[in-house]
Amino acid sequence: MTETAADARCKPTAQFRCIGCASSFQEAGSAFRCPACGDLLEIVYPHWDALPRPLAFADIWLRRRASPLPLDQSGVWRFREILPQETADAEVVTLREGNTPLYPLPRCARSAGVEHLLAKHQGMNPTGSFKDTGMTVAASVAKQQGFGWVACASTGNTSASMAAYAARAGMRSLVLVPQGKIAWGKLSQALDYGALTCELKTDFDGCMRVLNEVVERMPVYLLNSVNPYRIEGQKTAAFELMEQLSWRVHDHVIVPGGNLGNSSALGKAFFEMKHLGLISRLPKISIIQAEGANPLVRTMCETGGKKLIAVHPETMASAIRIGNPASWKKAVQVLEGTGGTVEQVSEAEIALAKAEIGADGIGCEPASAVTLAGLKKFVKQGFVKANESVVLILTGHLLKDPEFTLKFHLGDLFPAGAAQEPGIAQAQRRPVALEATAEAVIRALGAADRCAGS
Ligand code: F0G
Predict the structure, then answer these.
(1) Residue nearest to atom 7 of ligand 1 (CA)
(2) Cys staple from 124: which of 26, 100, 273, 408, with CB 3.0 to 4.6 Å?
(3) Pairwise CA distance, residues 2 & 10, whole Å
C-alpha cells in the first residue's frame, strides 16, 4: 500500500497532559500519574492545530480497508493518524482488532420505545471485548520499550485481552483478579493465553491497589486503562462508528461504566473529531451503571461530579463490579462536555435487557446490557425522545459469561420468591427435555407455535 502525502505530513508528536493541573510531559512514569498532582494523564496532539487537511483522513481510513497489510487490516491502526505516531512506527502487536459491526436492534427499539436503535458490538473483537482496541496500542508500546512482563488488575476482560496480546508479542503477563468474581469464559482465556493468573481474596479495587504497589517495585508494565495508550486505542471505536454512519452524528451514545476508561475514550474521540472538523456536533454520551456498583451515579447526584463517592460494589454484571473507578474525572468531563447523563439499573433490568438483545440475534454479556436497560429509563424520563437516534455500545460477547445466561433462562438467577421484573418470565427460554422421537419434537413445535400466537 502506498502511503499518501497526508500520511507523510502527519508525524504526530504526542504529549502527556495531566487532566488535573494541565502540566505537560514528554514521558509518563510507571503508574501513569502526574508527578506534580497525582492525577491521571491523557495524550494530546499539539501539532493537530497545524494539520493542513484533516478531512482527507476519512478517505485514507476507508481506502485502507482494502489493503492486505496487517496494520491496515486492524480497525485500530487504520486510524493511525489520530494515534501517537511512535506506536505506529514500532513493530505493532495486532490481532486485527476493531472493524466491529454496527447492527440495527429492531425488537429492542420497540421494547425501549424508540424508532432508531443501533448497537456497535465491541464484543466482536478478537478476544470478545472492546479491550482489544486499547490493548493493541498499549501492548505495542510495552514491547517497543523492551518490557518482559505486562500486568493488569481485572474483572476478566482486560486480563483476557492482555494475556492474548502479551502472548503474541512474546511477553509474559501477570493477571490479578478478584477470586470467584470473574466469569469463567474470561478466566479460561487468561489461562489459555498463558498468563500468570493470581486470584486475590478481594474485589477489583483491591486488586488494583495491590498491582499499583507491584508496579512501583518491579519492572512490569501497567496495562490497566489508567495507561493512556489504552485510551487512545479504545478511542478508534468512535471514529469507526462515525465512519459507519457516514460521519452523521447520532443523538445519543450509551455506554456501560465500570472503571470508566471506555466512556472517557469514546468522549475523547468525539471531542477530537469535532476539533478536526470530521463532525459538526457531539452526541450526548450517557453512562449506565448497575445499582449495586454505582459510584459515578452517586458522584454526579450527590456532589455534582466534584468528588468521587466510592462504594462497595455488588452486581452479577461482574465486568462492572467496581466501586472506586480510576477514570471518574475523565468520565465527568465527558458527561459535562457532551450533555449526557448517568443512570443506574437493577439486576432484574439488566437480565431482562440482556435477553432482549439476545432475542434480536445479537447477544452480549450482562455488563453490556445495562445500556438497553438504561435507554428504557431514559425514554420514560423523556431524556431520549422516540424519534432520536441512539447507539448502544455493547462491550462484551455473549459467550464470556454463559453461566449468567443459563441461570437466567433456567429461572435460577434470582432467589426463589424474589420480586419479578415484568417481562422476565416471557423472556426466559428453558430447554425442553423430550423423548427421542420425531413425534415428541413435532408436538413441541406445535406448542411453541401456539405459545407464540397467543
Ligand atoms: N463492559 C465490559 C464487558 C467490561 O469488561 C468492562 C470493564 C466495562 C463494560 C466497563 O468499562 O471499565 O472502561 O468503564 N472491564 C474491566 C476489566 C474493568 O477488567 O475487564 P470501563
Answers:
(1) 319
(2) 100
(3) 15
DSSP state of 40: B
Task: Kindly report the length of the chain.
Answer: 454
For residue 123, the ligand 1 atom closest to its alpha carbon is 3
Query: Positive or negative CA dihedral for 284, 102, 184, 133?
Result: negative
Residues of the chain with pLDDT under 50: 1-12
Amino acid symbol at 285: I
Residue 394: what are its φ and ψ, rounded to 5°?
-90, 125
Give the max Cα distance, the chain.
Answer: 75
**Residue 385: predicted pLDDT:** 98
Q: Answer whether 371 contacts ligand 1 (Cβ < 6 A).
A: no
Residue 398 carries which DSSP code?
G
**For residue 158, how far is its CA from the centre of ligand 1 (angstroms)?**
7
What is the C-alpha end-to-end distance of the chain, expressed in Å?
58
Residue type, 329: K
Q: Nearest-CA neighbor of 305 among 350, 272, 271, 260?
A: 260
Specify the residue with its C-alpha closest to ligand 1, atom 10: 258
